[in-house]
Design goal:
The chain has a single domain (2-316), classed as Arginase, Chain A (3-Layer(aba) Sandwich). The chain is built from eleven helices and eight strands. It has helices spanning 2-8, 12-15, 68-76, 91-94, 113-126, 140-152, 180-187, 215-221, 223-234, 266-275, 298-316; strands spanning 48-53, 97-102, 130-135, 156-160, 196-198, 211-213, 239-244, 281-287. The protein has an eight-stranded parallel sheet, with helices on both faces. Helix 10 links the parallel strand 7 and strand 8 (281-287).
Protein backbone atom coordinates (compact mmCIF):
# COMPACT_ATOMS: atom_id res chain seq x y z
CA UNK A 1 0.00 0.00 0.00
CA UNK A 2 2.79 2.41 0.94
CA UNK A 3 4.63 1.66 -2.32
CA UNK A 4 1.51 2.28 -4.40
CA UNK A 5 0.88 5.55 -2.56
CA UNK A 6 4.46 6.67 -3.23
CA UNK A 7 3.96 5.95 -6.93
CA UNK A 8 0.79 7.97 -7.27
CA UNK A 9 0.80 10.75 -4.69
CA UNK A 10 2.68 14.02 -4.77
CA UNK A 11 2.56 17.48 -3.19
CA UNK A 12 0.31 16.26 -0.41
CA UNK A 13 0.85 19.57 1.33
CA UNK A 14 -1.76 20.80 -1.15
CA UNK A 15 -3.49 17.70 -2.53
CA UNK A 16 -4.22 15.50 0.50
CA UNK A 17 -7.88 15.50 1.48
CA UNK A 18 -7.74 14.11 5.00
CA UNK A 19 -6.15 15.86 7.97
CA UNK A 20 -5.28 12.50 9.48
CA UNK A 21 -3.31 9.47 8.40
CA UNK A 22 0.22 8.78 7.17
CA UNK A 23 1.83 10.15 4.04
CA UNK A 24 4.06 7.98 1.85
CA UNK A 25 5.16 10.69 -0.55
CA UNK A 26 8.81 10.59 -1.60
CA UNK A 27 10.86 12.38 1.05
CA UNK A 28 13.07 14.05 -1.54
CA UNK A 29 10.28 15.56 -3.65
CA UNK A 30 7.17 17.64 -3.34
CA UNK A 31 6.21 20.74 -1.40
CA UNK A 32 7.48 20.90 2.16
CA UNK A 33 4.87 21.05 4.88
CA UNK A 34 5.37 19.72 8.37
CA UNK A 35 5.06 15.91 8.20
CA UNK A 36 3.41 16.36 4.79
CA UNK A 37 0.30 17.68 6.51
CA UNK A 38 -2.07 19.84 4.51
CA UNK A 39 -1.27 23.56 4.30
CA UNK A 40 -4.43 25.39 5.31
CA UNK A 41 -5.72 28.48 7.08
CA UNK A 42 -9.02 26.74 7.71
CA UNK A 43 -8.84 25.34 11.24
CA UNK A 44 -12.23 23.62 11.13
CA UNK A 45 -11.76 20.20 12.70
CA UNK A 46 -8.04 20.75 13.32
CA UNK A 47 -6.61 19.39 16.58
CA UNK A 48 -3.04 20.66 16.25
CA UNK A 49 -1.88 23.55 14.08
CA UNK A 50 1.82 23.72 13.23
CA UNK A 51 2.91 27.28 12.56
CA UNK A 52 6.20 29.04 11.94
CA UNK A 53 7.45 32.37 13.28
CA UNK A 54 10.59 33.12 11.22
CA UNK A 55 11.89 35.98 13.39
CA UNK A 56 15.54 36.27 14.49
CA UNK A 57 16.14 39.96 15.19
CA UNK A 58 16.47 39.49 18.95
CA UNK A 59 19.54 37.27 19.02
CA UNK A 60 22.66 38.00 21.07
CA UNK A 61 25.12 36.32 18.74
CA UNK A 62 24.62 34.57 15.41
CA UNK A 63 21.43 35.17 13.39
CA UNK A 64 19.86 32.70 11.00
CA UNK A 65 16.89 31.23 12.86
CA UNK A 66 14.49 33.01 10.53
CA UNK A 67 15.28 30.07 8.26
CA UNK A 68 14.46 27.56 11.00
CA UNK A 69 10.78 26.86 10.24
CA UNK A 70 11.55 26.03 6.62
CA UNK A 71 14.44 23.74 7.57
CA UNK A 72 12.40 21.95 10.26
CA UNK A 73 9.59 21.31 7.79
CA UNK A 74 12.03 19.87 5.27
CA UNK A 75 13.64 17.66 7.91
CA UNK A 76 10.25 16.42 9.10
CA UNK A 77 9.75 14.68 5.75
CA UNK A 78 12.51 12.25 6.76
CA UNK A 79 10.51 10.90 9.66
CA UNK A 80 8.59 7.68 9.40
CA UNK A 81 5.01 8.09 8.13
CA UNK A 82 3.96 5.50 10.69
CA UNK A 83 3.48 5.89 14.44
CA UNK A 84 6.30 7.83 16.17
CA UNK A 85 8.58 5.37 17.95
CA UNK A 86 8.13 4.80 21.64
CA UNK A 87 4.68 6.32 22.15
CA UNK A 88 2.40 3.37 21.48
CA UNK A 89 -0.07 5.38 19.41
CA UNK A 90 -0.10 7.15 16.06
CA UNK A 91 -0.62 10.85 16.65
CA UNK A 92 -0.96 11.49 12.91
CA UNK A 93 -3.83 9.03 12.54
CA UNK A 94 -5.67 9.79 15.78
CA UNK A 95 -5.49 13.58 15.54
CA UNK A 96 -6.06 16.10 12.76
CA UNK A 97 -2.78 17.95 12.28
CA UNK A 98 -2.47 20.82 9.80
CA UNK A 99 0.35 23.11 8.74
CA UNK A 100 -0.94 26.63 9.32
CA UNK A 101 2.00 28.19 7.52
CA UNK A 102 4.20 31.02 8.79
CA UNK A 103 3.05 34.13 10.60
CA UNK A 104 3.30 37.21 8.36
CA UNK A 105 5.00 40.28 9.81
CA UNK A 106 6.99 43.33 8.77
CA UNK A 107 10.66 42.54 9.39
CA UNK A 108 11.35 46.30 9.66
CA UNK A 109 9.01 46.63 12.66
CA UNK A 110 10.53 44.27 15.27
CA UNK A 111 8.84 46.13 18.13
CA UNK A 112 5.49 44.78 16.96
CA UNK A 113 6.52 41.13 16.96
CA UNK A 114 5.21 40.06 20.36
CA UNK A 115 1.78 41.58 19.78
CA UNK A 116 1.59 39.94 16.37
CA UNK A 117 2.60 36.55 17.77
CA UNK A 118 0.07 36.84 20.57
CA UNK A 119 -2.69 37.59 18.07
CA UNK A 120 -1.53 34.86 15.67
CA UNK A 121 -1.33 32.12 18.30
CA UNK A 122 -4.44 33.45 20.00
CA UNK A 123 -6.39 32.99 16.77
CA UNK A 124 -5.33 29.34 16.60
CA UNK A 125 -6.40 28.75 20.20
CA UNK A 126 -9.72 30.53 19.69
CA UNK A 127 -10.43 28.19 16.78
CA UNK A 128 -10.12 25.26 19.18
CA UNK A 129 -6.76 23.93 17.98
CA UNK A 130 -3.51 23.51 19.88
CA UNK A 131 -0.50 25.42 18.59
CA UNK A 132 2.97 23.98 18.05
CA UNK A 133 5.26 26.77 16.93
CA UNK A 134 8.50 26.55 14.94
CA UNK A 135 11.00 29.37 15.55
CA UNK A 136 12.67 31.69 15.11
CA UNK A 137 14.74 32.88 18.03
CA UNK A 138 13.63 32.34 21.62
CA UNK A 139 12.12 35.79 22.00
CA UNK A 140 9.06 34.55 20.10
CA UNK A 141 8.01 32.45 23.08
CA UNK A 142 6.80 35.46 25.06
CA UNK A 143 4.02 36.22 22.58
CA UNK A 144 2.98 32.56 22.60
CA UNK A 145 2.97 32.47 26.41
CA UNK A 146 0.77 35.56 26.53
CA UNK A 147 -1.73 33.96 24.15
CA UNK A 148 -1.83 30.70 26.11
CA UNK A 149 -2.08 32.47 29.47
CA UNK A 150 -5.11 34.40 28.23
CA UNK A 151 -6.86 31.08 27.71
CA UNK A 152 -5.47 28.96 30.55
CA UNK A 153 -4.28 31.44 33.19
CA UNK A 154 -0.74 31.44 34.64
CA UNK A 155 1.25 28.60 33.12
CA UNK A 156 3.78 26.07 34.20
CA UNK A 157 6.68 26.22 31.78
CA UNK A 158 9.03 23.38 31.00
CA UNK A 159 12.01 25.01 29.32
CA UNK A 160 14.75 22.96 27.70
CA UNK A 161 17.67 25.35 27.31
CA UNK A 162 21.34 26.07 27.86
CA UNK A 163 20.34 29.49 29.24
CA UNK A 164 17.68 30.47 31.77
CA UNK A 165 16.67 33.63 29.86
CA UNK A 166 15.79 35.36 33.13
CA UNK A 167 18.33 38.15 32.96
CA UNK A 168 16.78 41.30 34.44
CA UNK A 169 15.24 43.63 31.87
CA UNK A 170 12.52 46.03 32.98
CA UNK A 171 12.28 47.75 29.61
CA UNK A 172 9.30 45.89 28.24
CA UNK A 173 9.72 47.56 24.86
CA UNK A 174 12.95 45.64 24.31
CA UNK A 175 12.72 42.40 22.33
CA UNK A 176 15.48 40.07 23.54
CA UNK A 177 15.80 36.29 23.44
CA UNK A 178 17.71 36.29 26.74
CA UNK A 179 15.22 38.21 28.88
CA UNK A 180 11.81 37.06 27.69
CA UNK A 181 11.34 34.62 30.59
CA UNK A 182 12.11 37.39 33.08
CA UNK A 183 9.33 39.43 31.49
CA UNK A 184 6.94 36.45 31.48
CA UNK A 185 7.54 35.87 35.20
CA UNK A 186 7.16 39.56 36.05
CA UNK A 187 3.91 39.74 34.06
CA UNK A 188 2.54 36.82 36.06
CA UNK A 189 1.74 34.70 33.02
CA UNK A 190 4.23 32.06 34.20
CA UNK A 191 4.43 30.51 37.66
CA UNK A 192 8.16 29.89 38.27
CA UNK A 193 7.53 27.73 41.35
CA UNK A 194 5.60 25.27 39.18
CA UNK A 195 8.03 25.48 36.26
CA UNK A 196 11.24 23.64 35.38
CA UNK A 197 14.27 24.61 33.34
CA UNK A 198 16.24 21.64 31.99
CA UNK A 199 19.78 21.54 30.64
CA UNK A 200 20.93 24.94 31.95
CA UNK A 201 24.70 25.44 31.85
CA UNK A 202 25.21 29.18 32.11
CA UNK A 203 25.16 31.28 35.29
CA UNK A 204 22.34 33.67 36.02
CA UNK A 205 22.32 35.84 39.18
CA UNK A 206 18.58 35.47 39.77
CA UNK A 207 16.73 32.33 38.59
CA UNK A 208 13.41 33.81 39.83
CA UNK A 209 12.37 30.65 41.72
CA UNK A 210 12.36 28.42 38.65
CA UNK A 211 13.23 24.81 39.43
CA UNK A 212 16.51 24.19 37.61
CA UNK A 213 17.82 20.80 36.54
CA UNK A 214 21.10 21.85 34.98
CA UNK A 215 22.94 19.78 32.40
CA UNK A 216 25.36 18.13 34.88
CA UNK A 217 22.36 17.10 36.99
CA UNK A 218 20.66 15.59 33.96
CA UNK A 219 23.77 13.53 33.25
CA UNK A 220 23.92 12.41 36.87
CA UNK A 221 20.20 11.77 37.48
CA UNK A 222 19.30 10.21 34.16
CA UNK A 223 16.23 10.88 31.98
CA UNK A 224 13.71 8.89 34.05
CA UNK A 225 14.44 10.83 37.22
CA UNK A 226 14.39 14.14 35.34
CA UNK A 227 11.00 13.37 33.78
CA UNK A 228 9.64 12.31 37.17
CA UNK A 229 10.80 15.60 38.71
CA UNK A 230 9.12 17.56 35.92
CA UNK A 231 5.85 15.71 36.46
CA UNK A 232 6.11 16.30 40.22
CA UNK A 233 6.70 20.07 39.89
CA UNK A 234 4.08 20.73 37.21
CA UNK A 235 1.39 18.41 38.60
CA UNK A 236 -1.86 18.87 36.69
CA UNK A 237 -1.19 22.55 35.99
CA UNK A 238 -1.42 23.74 32.35
CA UNK A 239 2.05 23.29 30.85
CA UNK A 240 3.71 25.15 28.01
CA UNK A 241 6.87 23.44 26.77
CA UNK A 242 9.53 25.51 25.05
CA UNK A 243 12.53 23.70 23.59
CA UNK A 244 15.57 25.79 22.72
CA UNK A 245 17.64 23.52 20.50
CA UNK A 246 20.82 24.71 22.25
CA UNK A 247 19.70 22.55 25.16
CA UNK A 248 21.37 19.83 23.13
CA UNK A 249 25.14 19.63 23.10
CA UNK A 250 26.70 21.22 19.97
CA UNK A 251 27.70 17.71 18.90
CA UNK A 252 23.99 17.02 18.37
CA UNK A 253 22.85 20.54 17.43
CA UNK A 254 25.62 22.70 15.99
CA UNK A 255 23.20 24.88 14.03
CA UNK A 256 22.25 27.38 16.69
CA UNK A 257 23.20 30.91 17.62
CA UNK A 258 24.65 30.44 21.11
CA UNK A 259 26.05 26.90 21.43
CA UNK A 260 27.34 25.75 24.82
CA UNK A 261 29.24 22.51 25.37
CA UNK A 262 28.23 19.90 27.95
CA UNK A 263 24.60 19.74 26.92
CA UNK A 264 22.07 16.95 26.55
CA UNK A 265 22.32 14.26 23.92
CA UNK A 266 19.47 13.64 21.52
CA UNK A 267 18.82 10.32 23.29
CA UNK A 268 18.53 12.01 26.68
CA UNK A 269 16.13 14.64 25.37
CA UNK A 270 13.96 12.03 23.67
CA UNK A 271 13.79 9.91 26.82
CA UNK A 272 12.86 12.90 28.99
CA UNK A 273 10.14 14.05 26.61
CA UNK A 274 8.62 10.56 26.44
CA UNK A 275 8.95 10.21 30.20
CA UNK A 276 6.82 13.34 30.58
CA UNK A 277 3.77 11.57 29.13
CA UNK A 278 0.74 12.60 31.12
CA UNK A 279 1.65 16.23 31.82
CA UNK A 280 -1.12 18.68 31.00
CA UNK A 281 0.52 20.09 27.89
CA UNK A 282 -1.47 22.91 26.28
CA UNK A 283 1.08 24.11 23.72
CA UNK A 284 4.74 24.41 22.88
CA UNK A 285 7.50 25.46 20.55
CA UNK A 286 10.93 24.51 19.25
CA UNK A 287 13.24 27.46 18.64
CA UNK A 288 16.77 28.59 17.79
CA UNK A 289 17.39 26.20 14.86
CA UNK A 290 19.81 28.18 12.68
CA UNK A 291 20.40 26.45 9.32
CA UNK A 292 23.39 28.61 8.25
CA UNK A 293 25.42 27.01 11.05
CA UNK A 294 23.99 23.52 10.74
CA UNK A 295 25.99 20.49 9.62
CA UNK A 296 24.27 17.91 7.42
CA UNK A 297 20.92 19.28 8.68
CA UNK A 298 21.36 17.44 12.00
CA UNK A 299 20.00 20.39 14.03
CA UNK A 300 16.93 20.69 11.83
CA UNK A 301 16.36 16.94 12.13
CA UNK A 302 16.52 17.25 15.92
CA UNK A 303 14.09 20.18 15.81
CA UNK A 304 11.64 18.20 13.69
CA UNK A 305 11.76 15.30 16.13
CA UNK A 306 11.10 17.63 19.06
CA UNK A 307 8.07 19.11 17.28
CA UNK A 308 6.65 15.62 16.73
CA UNK A 309 7.25 14.79 20.40
CA UNK A 310 5.29 17.91 21.35
CA UNK A 311 2.37 16.68 19.26
CA UNK A 312 2.58 13.28 20.98
CA UNK A 313 2.77 14.83 24.45
CA UNK A 314 -0.30 16.92 23.69
CA UNK A 315 -2.15 13.91 22.33
CA UNK A 316 -1.24 11.50 25.14
CA UNK A 317 -4.02 12.57 27.50
CA UNK A 318 -6.50 12.99 24.65
CA UNK A 319 -5.86 9.86 22.61
CA UNK A 320 -8.30 7.07 21.86
CA UNK A 321 -7.86 4.23 24.34
Amino acid sequence: MALEDAKTKSDEAFTRQSLTGPSYENTFAGANSFLRRRYTRDLSGVDIAITGVPFDQAVTNRPGTRLGPRAIREASALQSPDAPYGWGFDVMSEFAIADYGDMPFDYAMPGEIWQRIEAHIGGILEAGAAAVTLGGDHSITLGALRAHAKKHGPLSVVQFDAHGDTWADDDFARVDHGTFMYKAAKEGIVDPKRSVQVGIRTDNPDPLDFHIIDAPSVHEMGPKAVAAKIREVTGDHPVYLTFDIDCLDPAFAPGTGTPVWGGLSSAQAAAILRGMAGVNLVGGDVVEVSPPFDSANVTAVAGAHVAVELCCLWGWNRRKR
